[in-house]
Amino acid sequence: MYNPSAAGGAVNTEYGSRLFIYEVAGLRQNAETDKAGYPIRQSGSVFITVPYSRMNQELQRITRLGGKVVSIRPYDGSINGKASSAAEPQTVQSAEASKPMTQAQEKPAKKRDDIPVNIYRPNNPYIGKCLSNEELVGEGGIGTVRHLKFDLSAGDLHYLEGQSIGIIPDGTDDKGKPHKIRLYSIASTRHGDDVDDKTVSLCVRQLEYKHPETGETVYGVCSTFLCNLQPGADVKITGPVGKEMLLPDDPEANIIMMATGTGIAPFRAYLWRMFKDAERNANPDYQFKGFAWLIFGVPKTPNILYMQELEELQAKYPNNFRITYAISREQQNSEGGRMYIQHRVAENADEIWNLVKQEKTHTYICGLKGMEDGIDAAMTEAAGKEGITWKEYQRANKERWHVETY
Q1: Quick one: 259 and 394 in the same domain?
Q2: The pTM is what?
Q3: Predicted confidence (pLDDT) at residue 365 exceeds the cutoff of 90
């Protein structure tokens, strides 16, 4: 791993003598970039050869100039597949000339204003009806998790995969005031489980914990309300909200998903949109051809939510979809302890890193916040093998690294 404090002596090491190619997008000709010495064209990418000892400084300078590093790779005598002389380390090649046009590039990118947000607010929620409420945890599993489907046909609530809705539970709090909203990630595609644009679904675990002073079992207000909701009952819904976890429009993207427990909810929506037959028929302009990888952490096998359907998709699309489980109470990590999601990421860190380096790869993390440090540690080690500082690379490519944890 690159250590900034050792940068002065790095060039004297075998690693320090290496060169790396930064592919940079977003730079525009202006007074500041004129001083930088980069040959910049109106379109395409700038390819910059950077010595190991200056990688961090160059990242910072590119960021200050408004650029974005879209890929980093060791210099092998070529730039973007074209042979280059080391005496000419900075070259430019048009992205239009070097890359085939994809379906997503032919279409304009989704505008942020096109994303539905807060169609229904807490002071005027949508009143939907519960259509179904099904248990997802198998016999012998831990806790209860329900898949709930709500009717939206009486209103204009619509949403995108990766967004959330708010639920206002019935009743009042201990001060006699209405309960506050709780947000839940949507577990269905924009067309709903029935692919008729009339429903929205949630994946809800009943919150249960011990009171720190009395030791009494306490149940979450909203999660208990939802888990006990009967078909036909009314439910107050707000939203949708959220822009962080949206899927890219590119059907050839790589999608890495890391989830614990009910963090599977948005990924179910992604995978149904990518692979379910009815969804593919409903979305002729989005026929997924990329690679999707789900790394899913649960305590026991019966806690693998949507297991049958997930594995059916993997069997049908073995070249496009992979599942890796981390089953903490049944599997052991390399040190003999419980197997958590961060251990699976560490086991596969080099392969994940090689995917993450690709401009078309988006990584999504959803679930318990505790897994983030372990994931970062694994990626730090993998990136460090190439002399790249993970946190700086992550910041430079933050639009492709999506996190929703709690």
Answers
A1: yes
A2: 0.73
A3: yes
